[in-house]
């Protein structure tokens, strides 16, 4: 994290120098405060303290010349010393015994010996004294005036009886003598580089000794606690933060630092645990190495360094750690120098790296540099103390200051990260808002082109004249399916934006959940195509009404059911409910893939998806469930999920029950929510509201007949008031009753609500379409929503149009009028077509037929009678009222065609030959006047145009999904341009009105017209298909 502050080398070294000066000043102050006043030194094994004033604050060091008896454990008896000639030497304390012998006498570091010192005390003063031994290598016993007062380990003349132990110890004793003899037995059979008494032995009054021993130990414990607290908060930051590795490294660094304190100086750890000298030394070296290892790792991680030399040093420390653990103890003497050399090189490397980092602009690295400087200075002072160049109590402040500076770096880094996160949060919030705005705007912009794409694809798919392969047809269907799914996504994006901006206002009313659920189930069924899924609605019709916004309740149910369909490949999806005094709870249970516990925690968050790879429908963008949850909460309810992987899921939500489920209260809210009119409605009797009859409002003038179906009696009365002045209105509250009454009469329009119990408006429309075509009986649906899924379901079920509630009276009247005008226009068109086809019987055809009859009356009266009969049959069938129907039995059409051909054959005799390839048992229906006009065109413009005439063949062949009807002639044929003109509906003298209208009616009925194959002088084949029902 660069602070972009350039710092020169001079400034860096100046800061380091000032820091060392401050640390040194503190250290010198500590030394002066704890320094012992000048006091007598031991000479020739005697220290004279007769004139010394002892107090409770200060101790003195028993430094100077002690009597030394190598390789001897002499009894603690002064008489023995005086009467026996012994191998006595004078040695300087503190020091290692292998460095104290002169006159070419060499003592090995391993062995045993006796130290003796005589202390002269003030006269006639009885008091408690104490002695504090900081370090003796490596086992010792202390005798005062012949009595054992303290010991550490078990010194012995042989290694087998010896037990070593490191660490300071003290003892308190009382003496009444004016002089005191101190005898110390020392043995060492473990360390190979030191032995004897390397540090001063303190002497003083009992309070002074206790204070010095306890203060040193307490100070070390305080430092350990401080380090432990810092390590804990660093670990806490790692856990709750971004899991930065440097925090873990810092925590581990402090752990090893704590160990280095506990195993060095007063060796506190060894007083708690029974650790031998071998492992105490190993732990000390490991702790020192661990501190620098994790310090180096911290720097590499905190400043993102990829230096190869850092990896080399980390590897060396790792190797060193392994060697320390497994090297035999006699070789440990080599580890100390190696460790010191590696530590020195590491500090040098860290100084170079940190200075380079600071020079590059990251001035925060100065804190780590100062921390390392503090540690290094502390090490230098430690070397001086261990070399007995300086004698002071344990000094903690270099180490504490170094850690505080280190911690300051972490705090500053944490504050910088916090501020950066706050700024990034603001940026992300702004970006989130911009994203929502962008998505909302994009959704608006994409809707129109997306609908255009869907419509174009649908038109290509529906165009029967275009030849599409099965593969291309499947691709188009997939394109339309994906486009509709994208429309749902666009709608979700708009809704989530409105929810965030709190722009959604609920129009709560008393609603029948069964009616809503029934309609939503019809909407969702098309999504189950290709899946073995059974939808089960288990909410009774008499389930208590709930308080909700109808539009939003439909959206909630649709999204939850849609989600269930997405993640259920086969099985059952069930909607059921329960209720208590005030609350209704509804459950959507599926047998799908289920949801794991981790996903359940965040499934209702925006843009969170379940496993989209486990469903063929896809995962969307994860907004549906979030929208559901927010909408349910806006209703005052809760949305929850209970699921297990592989066990399906159960989504549940709650709604408030209607406080007063009476019709009167429901009516007040539903009138406002369903219909919006600009006039005051007449009063409605209470009896009409409670038990509405079938209202048949007639008029003296002929009016279009409209049948209205709605389970809400108030809506029926409102619709009646709006439409009854112009139309004859009949109403009912039941879809079942509607089916009965519609089948009993002739209606110009059906208006139906979508959400109704028992039979929804979708199901009613689907049922009616099995009997009536779109032009025969228009249907207008009233829906609470205008979403794409509602519109698609409405039109796929066969509705002509829809109106979204709440509706305006003017809009409703306009749509009703348009549909009724459509119905009447289609009816008029059919009559016109019949008239056109009747006009096809041209006068010259009548005159020629009558002349033929007159001629036959003179030469063959029997043929005349047959001709008259066929001519009458032809005229009767040409003007039959059945010709205005959409389809008629094929036998009627063939009878008309036979009569026409019989007449023409009588006229032209051998010039006209007719062949019939027709199964007389066929039972199918075709448009009226569809074969005869084609045959007539083939006779007049094909066969008879040849001097010798020709043959006409009428063929009807049975195929898998359709019947093919073909009229084949061997006449003069026609060019491709003329064929194109006929198929494009351009009339000419070859096609006439009959053929043109036949093409148009076939397209209207089957989606495709005629197929014509012809060439000049090659004859003509005209065919069309009749789909099988």
From TrEMBL:
It comes from the Bacteria. It is found in: Cell membrane. Keywords: ATP-binding, Cell membrane, Kinase, Membrane, Nucleotide-binding, Phosphoprotein, Transferase, Transmembrane, Transmembrane helix, Two-component regulatory system. One of its GO terms (molecular function) is phosphorelay sensor kinase activity. Residues 441-659 form the Histidine kinase domain. The chain crosses the membrane at residues 12-30, 219-240, 247-263, 283-305, 312-332, 338-358, 365-388, 394-411. It catalyses: ATP + protein L-histidine = ADP + protein N-phospho-L-histidine. Residues 705-820 form the Response regulatory domain. Its EC number is 2.7.13.3. GO terms for cellular component: plasma membrane. Pfam families: 7TMR-DISM_7TM (PF07695), HATPase_c (PF02518), His_kinase (PF06580), HisKA (PF00512), Response_reg (PF00072). PANTHER family: HYBRID SIGNAL TRANSDUCTION HISTIDINE KINASE C, TWO-COMPONENT HISTIDINE KINASE. This is histidine kinase. It comes from Lederbergia lenta.
């Amino acid at each position: 994290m660069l602070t972009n502050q350039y710092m020169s080398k001079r400034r860096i070294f100046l800061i380091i120098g000032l820091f060392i000066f401050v640390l040194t000043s503190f250290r010198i102050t500590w030394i002066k405060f704890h320094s012992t006043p000048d006091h007598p030194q031991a000479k020739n094994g005697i220290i004279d303290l007769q004139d010394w004033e002892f107090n409770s604050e200060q101790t003195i060091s028993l430094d100077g010349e002690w009597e030394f008896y190598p390789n001897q454990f002499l009894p603690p008896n002064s008489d023995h010393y005086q009467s026996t000639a012994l191998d006595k030497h004078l040695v300087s304390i503190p020091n290692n015994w292998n460095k104290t012998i002169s006159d070419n006498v060499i003592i090995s570091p391993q062995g045993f010996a006796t130290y003796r010192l005589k202390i002269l005390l003030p006269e006639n003063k009885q008091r408690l004294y104490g002695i504090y031994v900081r370090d003796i290598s490596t086992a010792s016993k202390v005798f005062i005036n012949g009595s054992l007062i303290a010991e550490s380990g078990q010194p012995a003349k042989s290694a087998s009886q010896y037990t070593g132990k490191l660490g300071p110890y003290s003892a308190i004793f009382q003496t009444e003598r004016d002089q005191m003899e101190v005898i110390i037995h020392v043995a060492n059979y473990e360390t190979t580089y030191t032995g004897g008494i390397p540090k001063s032995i303190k002497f003083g009054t009992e309070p002074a000794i206790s204070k010095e021993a306890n203060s040193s130990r307490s100070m070390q414990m305080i430092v350990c606690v401080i380090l432990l607290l810092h390590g804990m908060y660093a670990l806490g930051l790692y856990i709750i933060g971004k899991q930065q590795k440097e925090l873990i490294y810092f925590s581990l660094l402090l752990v090893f630092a704590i160990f280095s304190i506990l195993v060095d100086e007063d060796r506190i750890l060894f007083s708690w645990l029974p650790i031998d000298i071998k492992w105490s030394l190993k732990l000390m070296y490991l702790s020192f190495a661990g501190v620098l290892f994790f310090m180096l790792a911290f720097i590499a991680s905190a400043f993102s360094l990829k230096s190869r030399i850092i990896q080399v040093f980390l590897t060396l420390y790792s190797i060193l750690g392994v060697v320390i653990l497994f090297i035999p103890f006699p070789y440990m003497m080599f580890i100390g120098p190696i460790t010191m050399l590696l530590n020195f090189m590491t500090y040098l490397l860290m100084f170079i790296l940190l200075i380079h980092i600071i020079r590059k602009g990251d001035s925060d690295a100065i804190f780590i540099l100062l921390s390392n400087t503090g540690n290094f200075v502390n090490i230098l002072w430690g070397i001086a103390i261990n070399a007995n160049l300086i004698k002071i109590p344990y000094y903690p402040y270099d180490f504490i200051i170094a850690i505080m500076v280190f911690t300051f770096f972490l705090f500053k880094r944490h504050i910088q990260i916090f501020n950066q996160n706050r700024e990034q949060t603001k940026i992300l919030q702004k970006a989130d808002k911009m994203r929502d705005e962008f998505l909302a705007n994009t959704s608006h912009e994409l809707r129109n082109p997306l609908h255009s794409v869907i419509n174009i694809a649908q038109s290509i798919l529906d165009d029967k004249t275009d030849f599409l392969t099965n593969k291309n047809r499947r691709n188009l269907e997939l394109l339309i399916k994906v486009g509709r799914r994208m429309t749902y996504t666009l709608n979700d994006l708009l809704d989530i934006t409105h929810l965030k901006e709190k722009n959604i206002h609920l129009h709560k009313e008393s609603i029948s959940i069964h009616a809503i659920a029934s309609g939503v189930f019809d909407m969702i069924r098309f999504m189950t195509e290709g899946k073995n899924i059974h939808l089960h609605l288990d909410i009774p019709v008499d389930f208590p009404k709930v308080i909700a916004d109808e539009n939003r309740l439909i959206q909630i149910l649709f999204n939850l059911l849609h989600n269930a369909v997405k993640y259920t490949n086969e099985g059952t999806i069930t909607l059921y409910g329960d209720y208590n005094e005030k609350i209704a709870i509804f459950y959507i249970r599926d047998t799908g893939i289920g949801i794991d516990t981790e996903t359940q925690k965040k499934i209702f968050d925006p843009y969170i998806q379940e496993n989209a790879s486990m469903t063929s429908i896809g995962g969307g963008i994860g907004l549906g469930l979030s929208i559901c949850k927010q909408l349910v909460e806006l209703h005052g309810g809760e949305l929850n999920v209970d699921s297990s992987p592989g066990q399906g899921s159960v989504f549940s939500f709650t709604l408030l029950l209607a406080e007063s489920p009476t019709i009167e209260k429901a009516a007040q809210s539903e009138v406002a929510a369903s219909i919006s009119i600009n006039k005051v409605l007449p009063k409605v009797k209470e009896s009409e509201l409670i038990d509405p009859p079938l209202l048949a409002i007639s008029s003296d003038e002929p009016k279009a007949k409209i049948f209205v179906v709605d389970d809400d009696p108030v809506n029926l009365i409102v619709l009646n008031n709006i439409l009854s002045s112009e139309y004859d209105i009949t109403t009912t509250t039941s879809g079942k009753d509607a089916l009965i009454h519609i089948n009993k009469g002739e209606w110009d329009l059906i208006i139906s609500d979508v959400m109704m119990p028992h039979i929804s408006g979708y199901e009613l429309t689907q049922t009616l379409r099995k009997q009536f075509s779109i032009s025969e009986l228009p249907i207008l649906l009233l829906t609470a929503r205008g979403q794409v899924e509602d519109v698609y379901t409405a039109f796929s079920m066969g509705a002509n149009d829809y109106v979204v509630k709440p509706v305006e009276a003017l809009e409703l009247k306009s749509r009703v009028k348009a549909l009724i005008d459509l119905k009447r226009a289609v009816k008029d068109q059919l009559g016109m077509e019949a008239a056109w086809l009747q006009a096809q019987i041209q006068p010259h055809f009548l005159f020629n037929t009558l002349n033929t009859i007159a001629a036959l009356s003179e030469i063959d009266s029997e043929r005349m009678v047959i001709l008259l009969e066929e001519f009458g049959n032809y005229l009767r069938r040409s003007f039959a009222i059945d010709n205005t129907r959409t389809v008629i039995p094929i036998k009627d059409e063939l009878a008309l065609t036979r009569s026409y051909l019989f007449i023409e054959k009588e006229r032209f005799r051998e010039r006209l030959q007719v062949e019939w390839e027709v199964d007389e048992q066929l039972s199918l229906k075709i448009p009226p006047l569809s074969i005869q006009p084609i045959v007539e065109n083939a006779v007049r413009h094909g066969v008879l145009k040849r001097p010798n005439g020709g043959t006409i063949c009428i063929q009807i062949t049975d195929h898998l999904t359709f019947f093919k009807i073909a009229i084949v002639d061997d006449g003069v044929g026609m060019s491709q341009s003329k064929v194109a003109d006929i198929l494009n509906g351009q009339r000419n003298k070859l096609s006439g009105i009959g053929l043109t209208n036949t093409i148009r009616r076939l397209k209207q009925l089957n989606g495709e017209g005629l197929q014509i194959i012809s060439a000049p002088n090659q004859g003509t084949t005209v065919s069309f298909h009749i789909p099988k029902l």
